Each structure stands twice: as structure tokens, then as C-alpha cells.
Amino acid sequence: MKKASLIAIVCLTTLTTVSLCAQQLDAAFGVGTLTAPSGVSAAGNHAPVTMGGGAYPAFSADYIFKHNFGFGGEVAWRASRNSYLGVQPYRPILYDFYGLWGPKLGKHTQAVLMGGIGAETIRFYVPYYSFSAVSGFTNFTSSTHFLGQFGGALRVYPWRHLFIGPEAHLYLIHNNEEFSSGRAARFGVSIGYTMTSEQH
Known about the structure:
The chain has 200 residues and is mainly β. 8% of the residues lie in helices and 62% in strands.
């Protein structure tokens, strides 16, 4: 969780630094769930375990500049630990950085389409602590895989710069052998705030 929190802080700090000249700066918090193929559909090198299910909180931030184009980043993680093959507790963490296009659909509505790259980190928890010079004392081991992300969101502004709306993300995860597939989708709802010189 420290790594995910650090990424969120770096994104927000970077975006805040450029906010004075930004056309639009957004920060949001959301909750959703992850869907993925079932364990019985595993094939090839994939383990018969689905990574779907559970609640996934998420933080995101983006900066939209000229012609509705911009960039951003997000991190989402499983709120509670799951049990891997009924034996070992684990938690997936997904984070990515993306380019986006955010056209206005009206005075109080905006669409956001995005695509980018990132990683999936799976934390497998153990009943003892180990020491690393890099991370200090931890009670987990990690397995990290490269991913591609494609997504979209609809932002509705019910009051000034506050927005709420649905979002969907498709993750294509490379070498995701721990689970039944290298494909997963996250669906959720986010609430956020926009800083901009334009009025919604």
C-alpha cells in the first residue's frame, strides 16, 4: 500500500505544480469491482484462480490541456485480502499512467477516453516479517506484471466543479500466470473535483 500511496501523492503533487497554467486539473476518488474470467476457464500457463470480485477503491488525477488532450495516472487496489487457492492471503494492486481525450458533451457533462501503461502488483502475505534494505520490514512478497489499460468515464457536474460519474477500465496484463487470464475489467463510480478557468 505504501507504493500505491506514494504514486498517488507524486501524481497529485506534479499536477498541482502545473495547475496555475492548466486548462483543467482533476482529482477523484472512486469505488468499484473487478471482473475477470473464472478459474475453471484457465488455459495454458494460467492458474485456475480468478482475480475478479471484491471492492476496489481508486485514486486518480489528470491534467487536460490544449484541444481536450492530456495525461493522468491512477491506482486501484482490492480493499480486503482474498485467499489464493484457499491457502495464502493476497491483494492485487493496479496502477497506470495514461494519455486521455476529454471532450465536453455539454455545459455540465464531459466524456473521458484514456489509454496507457502500468503494472499489476500482487502481494502475497506471509505470517512473518522479512527485512529488505529497500523496503524495510514487510510481511509480504510481491509479483509484478506489465499491463496495458484502456478506459472511459462520464463526468456529470451537479454543482460547480464537483463531478460524479461511472467509469470502466480494461486491463491487459502480461504474463499473469497467477490467475486464469491476462484480462480483467474494473467498473465503478468516482466523485471528484475539477480546477479550471472555465465554468461548468
